[in-house]
């Protein structure tokens, strides 16, 4: 009956519904008394019918007001037991309907947090297992006498240790960013020498990995090109955090590049006053449009489509997530832009007046 009458329900407030209950009860009692006077019916019969009618109306209204609360109680108990998939109906127009909507939003947030927690534990466990297993294997071979503790063996152990250290460092960076404890120390800087230094470090790191026989040989053959216009262009940002952004984007582009490919780092003045636009372009296979919104998610390694695809070097899948958070700290934006070839990631940093202090 409540569902059938709901389209006719004019009340958008619990107070109005209770007021209507009182008015309806008084009206029915008055009508019954008038009928009794007209028909000379005994007062006790009128009283009995009045009580019965009032109780029915009260029960009807009370059921409509308390059923959402009963449903919320049942769903809350299920959530306490770990089931975050249940929801309550939110089709009322009064305060209880607003409460139901807020309850469903809270349940959805808790479900997302629980899912991310499980994914984080699973992914971190997976990421830590590989370098630890490799390091353990090297050390066991040395202890058992299978291999000597020569420089090459120690370099292998060192690479596994460095990889483990990089993973822990990126996790710590992400934790600091999540907790909002990373302050921004924005300052004005010259773009050309700054980006040139970042690319020089990337070249040196690639050459060192290739010389050490890393898991992605030949990446030093990728040519890094810097394009800054005008040459005297300046920016305003936290150079340490911006270094994380550019280094991660360049490293990701290098991993996707074909042999003897080209990665271009481009810098231009933005549309807004004092803003800065950065672009990183590669000649790799590109990113399919359905996957573009996911590449900045944590532990997302994308689609392995080439021998030098994401994850081929045991990457953590955290680099682009850290880049996004660092850009967000500046109040800027980062995303995949259209490109006729390869992948093009665009970063927009606001001017000095819009960078959070």
Question: What is the compact description of this entry?
Answer:
The protein has helices at 2-5, 14-39, 43-80, 95-143, 151-179, 191-211, 239-256, 319-329, and strands at 187-190, 223-228, 234-237, 262-269, 276-281, 333-337, 344-349. The protein is of the alpha+beta class and 357 residues long. Mean pLDDT is 76; it is low at 4-8, 214-218 and 303-315.
Please describe the structure with a list of short key phrases separated by commas or semicolons.
357 residues, two-stranded antiparallel ribbon, elongated, five-stranded mixed beta sheet, alpha+beta, 8 helices
Topology overview:
Layout: H1 2-5, H2 14-39, H3 43-80, H4 95-143, H5 151-179, E1 187-190, H6 191-211, E2 223-228, E3 234-237, H7 239-256, E4 262-269, E5 276-281, H8 319-329, E6 333-337, E7 344-349
Parallel strand pairs: 2-4
Antiparallel strand pairs: 1-3, 4-5, 5-7, 6-7
What can you see in these coordinates?
The protein has helices at 2-5, 14-39, 43-80, 95-143, 151-179, 191-211, 239-256, 319-329; strands at residues 187-190, 223-228, 234-237, 262-269, 276-281, 333-337, 344-349. The relative contact order is 0.08. The chain is 55% helix and 11% strand. The chain has a 5-stranded mixed beta sheet with strand order 2-4-5-7-6. Helix 3 runs parallel beside helix 4 (95-143), helix 4 (95-143) runs antiparallel to helix 5 and helix 7 (239-256) runs antiparallel to helix 8 (319-329).
